[in-house]
Design goal:
The chain contains 31 helices and 15 strands.
Length: 789
């Protein structure tokens, strides 16, 4: 096979795609990026060895600089034998790389496991020491809910010690006689490589899991909101010093904590140095207060929601704060409940006199026995609160853009979950949501966004606003405003580049519409999170990027061509003007701040070009099957993507396509002799349930196609099956399993002929292209791989 050139910065393999080739790095460096891990792969190494054990790439591969790769065709382990027979010189290289990388990955895994144990045990030890010192100095102990709920790390896929030792010893042996032993037989060689690949896969997944644990709990030691062990000790030292006690023992206890934070480089470097310097330069000898009072140095119970502007006081540690006597009262819980709402509204810039009115409205709504009532009074109140929520969201978001990397948990709860008031959800749920803000990174990936992150990407110009309900994009909307005389030409040009106006357009259209639609109960929708929505623990309902990607992966395992688009490859310098190739484009998934039951396919492409991402919309929390929601959304995408490609002729049977053939099949099903009476009756019932919407009939069949037909449980009639197989073919694994079935034999036979014809054309094109001086790139390689699936 020919060498492949990959330009710097290009992601040429996406995680989750089927392994269809291995690549030896001839020149340059490749970044292997998994969920929370990044490894540099230099020349001489082989990309895909680790991934072949899982039959899909478990990481993204990005060219760190201009890279030259040598590809090897690979689909199943037996292909190793074909590689080594055709090119024996690579056998030793494959084995050596596999063993060396397995040893390296297993060693890294062990170091991360040790780190998780150290994080857990050291945090507990420091908290126990804090409790002891509080008792010794007669200081009131502060509540620290985060550490009280801390759980030890649970290993999910840990390699046994003997396996790590085994690969370490093999790596030490190098190319000695033991290596010669494995190379005697192809089966021995393949078996050893696959064993190394499985060990590497387990290690990478365990490293990601360990890093996730460490990332979740780093704020125990150093938190941007100062609800951490360091502040706990700082507070204790200040209160002990204020009472006139010698705090040398406390100082000695803090030193290991400071050293741990520095050694492990916890948190942001600037924040870390600032906090440590703050403690080390603080003058504890000049604190003068009444000796018979109990004082709250931090201004808040650590672990609770901070009051507005409390951070400034925490930073300064001023004496006026020490002079505030901390007294627990019966109204404390109510006051804390009020604080969240007040904090959000003040952050949004709501006038003080309006805060009380808003609180009254929310309490009035919360007092309704059944929030799903639809009487006139409840509808009016719900409408007022909905308008309030979106107005507040807009102002909070605009303010948040000034300090987007340092948002306090309450603001994050509002922006990502729709939370506004503790009383509306209950104290336990509010605490769960508060803890969940530490895990929001789980809801983000290259193609998965929380609503806040999505709006932020538009504000920063990384994405364009979505189309509105009238199918107008942002520029189309501005043109319409100009046509109606509401904008002049200069104003239109100015707004085209105004990021805030773009963000407002997204909020006023896509956000408002999809937030209501994904909730599911449109007539009783209120965007403010309520206890009536919280039917399970929040973490169980949370829709993470991993869950989204797993749901997409399961659909793609069956419908492999789902996200492939035909685009044009052009290289006139080497004799290619226009060659159609297949390109896979993954959708962007946006998580609405609600507890919902529906998902939506909002638009099939991000713009006019076909090779831009679709936009799927899901609730950020749900109790319903995410997999079922994803299958339905993918079916909707299939239909709408075909309509976009076909344009005005999407239902014209003379132009063969998925939509035109399906419309023809449904429109004339009564006259179709290939359908039995029973099948016709079933179509009639489905049409009635779908309110005569042909798209909904297709989606119903698509769900059956993915969930049942692929597994050999036949639910579709022969006409629908034939259309779906031609336009949404099963992946090779499922085709092979169904090939012996009489219902699929002819269809699979025709499909094989089609694939062979395409591969012959690709082979001829490649020969001509290389003869003219062209070089194979990942775009052409991906096209070839597509027709081998």
């Amino acid at each position: 096979m020919a060498m492949i050139k990959v330009p710097a910065g290009k992601c040429f393999i996406k995680h989750g795609t089927a392994v269809n080739a291995l690549y030896m790095v001839i020149h340059g460096t490749v970044r292997q990026v998994s969920k929370l891990e990044e490894v540099q792969i230099g020349s001489g190494n082989i990309i895909g060895l680790m991934d072949c054990a899982e039959e899909e790439y478990i990481a993204d591969y990005v060219a760190a600089d201009d890279v030259t790769l040598y590809p090897f065709h690979y689909h199943v382990p037996e292909d190793f034998g074909k590689i080594f027979i055709s090119q024996p010189k690579y056998a030793a290289a494959f084995l050596s790389v596999a063993i060396r990388e397995a040893d390296h990955m297993l060693g890294r895994n062990q170091r991360f496991q040790n780190s998780t144990e150290k994080y857990y045990s050291f945090a507990l030890a420091m908290y126990q020491k804090y409790q002891e010192l509080c008792r010794k100095y007669c200081i009131q102990e502060k509540s620290f809910r985060r550490i009280e709920s801390l759980q030890p790390y649970v290993r999910t896929n840990m390699a046994p010690k003997w396996e790590a030792d085994y690969f370490h010893e093999l790596a030490e042996l190098g190319n000695s006689g033991t290596m010669d032993f494995f190379q005697q037989k192809e089966d021995l060689l393949t078996g050893q490589i696959m064993q190394a690949a499985r060990a590497m896969c387990k290690a990478v997944r365990e490293i990601d899991h360990a890093k996730e644990y460490l990332q979740e709990h780093v704020n125990l030691y150093l938190d941007t909101n100062r609800m951490d062990l360091l502040q706990l000790y700082f507070d204790m030292a200040a209160r002990a010093a204020a009472s006139g006690a010698d705090i040398e023992e406390i100082r000695q206890a803090i030193e290991p904590l400071l050293q741990f934070i520095k050694d492990n480089r916890l948190g942001d470097a600037g924040e870390r140095d600032k906090r440590i310097t703050e403690y080390q330069t603080y003058d504890f000898s000049n604190i003068k207060i009444k000796a018979d009072a109990i004082y709250n140095f931090a201004g808040e119970l650590i672990g609770e929601v901070p009051k507005p502007q409390a951070e400034d006081k925490l930073v300064q540690g001023t004496e006026d704060l020490l002079e505030q006597e901390y007294v627990e009262t019966d109204g404390e819980e109510e006051e804390e409940t009020e604080d969240c709402l007040v904090h959000i509204l003040e952050y949004a810039g709501v006038a003080a006199e309006d805060v009380h009115k808003i609180r009254s409205k929310m309490h009035e709504y919360d007092a309704i026995p059944d929030n799903f009532d639809n009487d006139e009074k409840t509808r009016k109140l719900r409408k007022e609160l909905t308008a309030l929520f979106y107005a507040t969201y807009k102002n909070v978001f605009k303010h948040a853009m000034k300090d987007a990397d340092d948002l306090d948990p309450v603001i994050q709860m509002f922006l990502n979950f729709g939370f506004m008031d503790v009383g509306m959800v209950g104290e336990d749920t509010a605490n769960e949501l508060y803890d969940l803000t530490d895990k929001l990174f789980k809801c983000k990936s290259d193609h998965v966004y929380t609503m806040f992150e999505w709006l932020k990407s538009i504000y920063e110009g990384k994405n364009e606003p979505s189309r509105n309900e009238f199918d107008l994009d942002y520029n189309g909307y501005l043109a319409e405003q100009k046509r109606m005389g509401k904008l002049d030409a200069a104003g239109m040009e100015r707004l085209k580049t105004d990021c805030w106006e773009k963000t407002k357009y997204e909020m006023n259209n896509m956000f408002v519409s999809t937030n209501r639609a994904t909730y599911g109960k449109v007539s009783t929708f209120c965007p403010i999170l309520s206890k009536h929505d919280m039917v399970q623990e929040t973490e169980k309902m949370l829709v993470t990027a991993e869950r989204i990607e797993e749901a997409i992966k399961k659909v793609r395992e069956v419908d492999y061509s789902l996200f492939y688009r035909e685009v044009i490859f052009s290289d006139p310098m080497h004799g290619v003007n226009a060659e159609p190739v297949q390109k896979e484009v993954f959708p962007d998934v946006i998580l609405m701040p609600n507890v919902g039951m529906k998902a939506m396919m909002w638009q099939e492409t991000a713009g006019v070009k076909r090779d831009t991402s679709a936009r799927f919309v899901f609730p950020v929390m749900t109790i319903y099957s995410l997999q079922d929601m994803m299958i339905e959304t993918c079916g909707r995408f299939r239909w709408e993507m075909c309509r976009k490609i076909q344009g005005m002729r999407w239902n014209d049977i003379t132009e063969k396509s998925l939509t035109s053939e399906y419309c023809d099949y449904i429109q004339y099903y009564r006259k179709n002799r290939d359908l039995s009476t029973e099948a016709k009756e079933k179509i009639k019932n489905t049409l009635w349930k779908s309110k005569n919407n042909y798209r909904e009939v297709f989606i119903s069949d698509y769900i059956g196609w993915i969930k049942y037909e692929a597994g050999g449980s036949f639910r579709l009639n022969r006409v629908a099956r034939d259309i779906l197989f031609r336009y949404c073919p099963f992946a090779k694994k499922y085709r092979d399993a169904l090939e012996a079935n009489p219902m699929y034999q002819d269809m699979i036979s025709r499909f094989k002929i089609f694939q062979e014809r395409k591969l012959r054309h690709i082979d001829g094109f490649r020969t001509r292209y290389e003869k003219n001086g062209g070089e194979m790139n990942m775009e052409l390689q991906e096209n070839m791989n597509f027709y081998n699936m």
